[in-house]
Structures are given as structure tokens and as C-alpha cells.
Amino acid sequence: MTSNAVLTEAYSQLAAACEVQQRFLQYDPPQLETLGYSAECRQLCEVGGDCYDFIPLADHRLAMAIGDASGKGVAAALMIASVQSSLRTAAVLTGGDAPAVVAAVNRQAQASSVAGRYATLFYGVFDGRSRTLQYVNAGHNPPLVIRCDGSVLRLQTGGVPVGMFADYAYAEGAVQLQSGDVIVTYTDGVIEALNSSGEEWGVEGLQRSAAKSREQSAEQVVSAIFEAMAEYADGCQIDDATIAVLRVF
User: Is the pTM of this model over 0.85?
Assistant: First the structure.
């Protein structure tokens, strides 16, 4: 095979991988009367290591997830695609049992990934009737719960990233939410945005931006955070950046 043919084949495979990943990032589950939600992933390259998902469950519940694979490029994209695929299957089979879902994803990730590869993952199940969120944080950046009174809670309960230990037992956290609360989940690329002086935007910058826009729709909160991040970093992005927001009605 000539070098041109090899390059053509490589570009073809990359395009196919990109198309598959974009399909994973599309969602259209039904809206709940008590919840609005939105997400956006801004990848640094054609394929990336971030993911998010919204999965409708029975009994007025919605599962949501956000993840970030270690490393960059095609290897990270393959890892996160495997995580998201097994996540969807486990969510359908085990429903609202967050620790069981993450444990299943972890076993699959550990069995199928090469040594040293892992992914951070946050998985939560929102009950539209009780306005409760049950969740597992598998080594991910703690999501922010911005209360309607302005106070902030961080969702940290869970355990290690998926893919590290096959038989790890994850702990479950739960939070009671109320109308007006906003949950902001995000990946490293958001808080690690750098300004011209090399200073990170940080969780503090993210929290300030989210608090300013918390009375808007979930989609508007996502847009406002990205706009604030881009302004801080003067439009320069150094890593995949993903934001997923839930807004309780």
C-alpha cells in the first residue's frame, strides 16, 4: 500500500471515529416537568476523550452522566466510547441503582482497556417526582449544586475512576433538590482554561459564572459558562471541555 493510500485510509478511519463520537453526543430524551437539562462538548481535535449522556428511565426518572478519559486523541476517544456504550447498557438493565451501573462500567473498562488507562465518571439519577438525585462520583470533578438561596454543595461521594480496579465497591450519594436549584457538571478542560498570565480559571471562576446565570434555562447556563470561560482564556482552548447542566423546576 502506498503512503498516500495509507494516509487516505487513516483519514477515513478518523472521520468514521469522529462520526461515531458525534452520534454518542446527540440526545433527545423526553423533558420532565420538574427538570430542564442541556450539555455541550467542545473538543480540541476531531475526536476527544470527554462524553456526556442523558438516559430516560422508567417512573419519571432521568439518568445523566459526564466522563473524561485519561490521555488525549484517538486512544482517549476509544476509551470514552467504550465507557459510554457500557454505561447505556448498564443504565437500562439496572435502572436507578447508581453504584451497580458504575460498577458494571468499571468492570468493562478494566477488562477492555490497556494498562494505565482509566476514565473519571459522574453518574446520577434524577427522580422527577421527589426531586432527588442519587449519584456516584467515580473520581470526577465534583459537580456544583447551586441552591436557589445562593449556597453551593459539591457532589463528591463515590470512589476511584473506572478502569482502575475490577472489583471496586462504589458508594452512593444522594441530595434533595428543590425548585430553582442548578447542578453544573464539567470536565477538566473547563476549569483549567488559562488566561494570558497562565492562571487557571478554576472552580471559582466556573462557580461565579454559573451563579450569575442560574435563573436562566439550562441551555442558557451552559452557553453563559462557555462564554465566560472563552473570555477569560481569550478564546484559547487547551483541552476538551464539556459542561452538562440540570435545572430543577
Answer: yes
Expressed as residue numbers, the domain containing 108 is 3-248
CATH of the domain at 17: 3.60.40.10
3-state helix, strand, coil in the chain (%, to 5): 35, 30, 35
Domain count, the chain: 1
SS3 readout for 39-86: EEEECCCCCCCEEEEEEEECCCEEEEEEEEECCCHHHHHHHHHHHHHH
Residue pair 143/123 in contact by the 8 Å Cβ criterion: no
> What is the residue whose three cell numbers read 453544573?
184
Over residues 159-180, the pLDDT tens digits come to 999 999 989 999 999 999 999 9
In this structure, the chain runs to a length of 249
Q: Residue 51 has which C-alpha cell?
A: 462524553
Neighbouring C-beta atoms of residue 130, cutoff 10 Å: 12
